[in-house]
Design a protein that fits this description.
The structure is a single chain. It is built from eight helices and three strands; from the N terminus they run ββααααβαααα. It is mainly alpha-helical and 267 residues long. It has a three-stranded antiparallel β-sheet, with no helix packed on it. Helix 3 crosses helix 4 and helix 3 packs across helix 5. The longest helix has 19 residues. It is globular, with a radius of gyration of 18 Å. The termini are far apart. InterPro entries: ELMO_dom (IPR006816), ELMO_domain-containing (IPR050868).
Length: 267
């Protein structure tokens, strides 16, 4: 398994229905409890289909434009989060400001981060599973689909379990899952799903970020439909991946906005 993963999961216990948008003491609405099982990297090993090295896989030729778009996305994937880089810290601060505009971040090392669903006081340790792009995905979600982002962050929609998935850590897992599902670290796609996605990417440079938002909302939709609790996270992720693959392969899908699950972002 990719050694970028690691660390223990964090379960969030529901005490009240969502975090109060206007209450600076909203952290009292949840308890954060560390567990011994891994969420990042190792915890995703059962989400992505396993294959034997001898299994034959098709290969799809790319246009020069598609090759260029894939290379740019791969360059993003290759960047690890580095807390010593000012631009990385600014992006992390921007994520906090977009998430909790009513509450000032006191420090980059702070208990406040647990309110967002990071595992501890320093969120940089959780980016091992997804790199800088997982932070960029979260920030894109926060800026472009504010209502959906806040609904998921504050768990404001649906009949929730007593023990909920941690928002930010789940977001890193989603980035990691999409990279694997779309086979984005290969020279060229070896699955129809990957080849289909690259068509969207060549037409929309933000296609990966948009698909991330769709996937996060779909995952939460599956979570509620399955009446899941934190021990069911991998099961929910498997169901989310299967549904996303089915939608991407529908014949009448010509852009990501045509995916049935895209409508979830507009609710």
């Amino acid at each position: 398994m990719d050694d970028r993963g690691g660390g223990s999961f964090v379960a969030v216990r529901r005490i009240s229905q969502g975090l109060d948008r206007g209450n600076p003491c909203h952290s009292a609405s949840a308890e954060v409890v560390a567990g011994s099982a891994a969420w990042l990297g190792r915890g995703l090993s059962c989400v992505c289909a396993q294959r034997r090295e001898s299994d034959a896989r098709p290969s799809f030729d790319l246009t020069p434009a598609q090759e260029e778009c894939l290379q740019r996305l791969q360059n993003r994937i290759d960047v690890a989060y580095d807390s010593s880089v000012p631009e990385h810290q600014e992006a992390l601060k921007a994520l906090w400001n977009a998430s909790f505009p009513e509450e000032k971040l006191r420090s980059f090392i702070s208990e406040q981060w647990k309110e967002m669903g990071w595992q501890g006081k320093d969120p940089s340790t959780d980016f091992r599973g997804g790199g800088l792009i997982s932070l960029e995905n979260l920030l894109y979600f926060a800026r472009n689909f504010q209502k959906s982002f806040q609904d998921l962050l504050r768990k404001q929609v649906g009949d929730r379990a007593m023990w909920e998935y941690p928002f930010a850590v789940a977001g890193v897992n989603i980035t990691f899952m999409l990279i694997q599902m779309l086979d984005l670290e290969a020279v060229k796609p070896r699955t129809m799903v990957g080849a289909t996605f690259l068509k969207f990417l060549s037409e929309n440079e933000s296609a990966f970020d948009l698909l991330y938002c769709i996937t996060f909302k779909l995952m939460d939709h599956q979570w509620l439909a399955m009446h899941a609790s934190y021990m069911d996270f991998n099961t929910v992720m498997k169901a989310t991946r299967r549904q996303l693959e089915r939608e991407l392969l529908q014949e009448d899908i010509t852009r990501l906005e045509d995916l049935p699950s895209y409508a979830l972002l507009r609710r």
